[in-house]
Specification:
Structural class: alpha/beta
Distance between the termini: 74 Å
Number of helices: 12
Shape: elongated
Largest sheet: 7 strands, mixed
Helix content: 40-55%
Strand order of the largest sheet: 5-4-3-6-7-9-8
Strand content: 15-25%
Bound molecules: S-adenosylmethionine
Oligomer: single chain
Amino acid sequence: MTLGEVLSATTGYLARKGVDTPRLDAELILAHAFSLSRLQLYTDFDRPLNEKERSEARALVERRGRREPLAYVLGEWGFRRLTLKTDARALVPRPETEIVVERALARIVGIAAPAVVDVGTGSGAIGLSIVDEHPGARVTAIDLSADALALARENAERLGLELELIEADLLVGIDGPFDLVVSNPPYVTAAELPGLQAEVRDWEPRGAVVGDRETEQLARDARRVIRPGGWIVLECHEGHAAGVAAMLADLGYLEVVITRDLAGRERVVEATWAPTL
Ligand SMILES: C[S@@+](CC[C@H](N)C(=O)[O-])C[C@H]1O[C@@H](n2cnc3c(N)ncnc32)[C@H](O)[C@@H]1O
């Protein structure tokens, strides 16, 4: 079989398995398997593949056919300026979380060495991007999952970026002061889980996806560690932004702002902690 024939057979197979973007996924998996660019898949369209090449690609394609997330199959994923190692130890970093980083960076711009805490760091996506894009930032990254922290550590080492990693339940036992508390906490309700895509429901760590108390608990506790005038930036469920904004205002935060993601969904809520003494 030629590369072109394998590409079209793979596309058909992934479509039958219910993958949303079968052609794109087929291209990315085969390009990865054969160490080619996507463009080279087409310039090498007529190249015959030997059995060894085909069986290596088949193993990856079958994983994707079982609806394992593409980022886990490829083993790495782009997030802002970084390429992060990705596997089943942590959530796949999402495009909307890039907006969280953008808002977080906007709140520490002009501070030479801001102290930042990324709560629920997972792969390290948020914390590592902040260190990368604001080189003076001193970032503490927290997770309840030792597996996620191990992945974040591997990412920090691969990228040569400094991150202090701590295993903790939200901010329990963590002392400030921080200029910024940033988090993408788990916020999918248990009732919603069965209706989610197989990739999320069956493969991503449940503790990274499902949660209900985390957002409010974090907002409550953050008041203890944010320096006056510092900020909290939270990713939230697309249907929860107004509720999260109201909760922050009730807790005494000021200047509450909601930001939409690129799809127009309200996904990021930020506010400042400036208690009047
Ligand atoms: C939605 S994922 C976000 C991962 C990463 N920050 C990102 O945006 O891609 C939530 C993360 O919070 C962690 N987590 C869940 N409950 C936690 C808790 N009580 N304390 C600390 N981390 C928690 C999970 O293990 C998971 O890594």
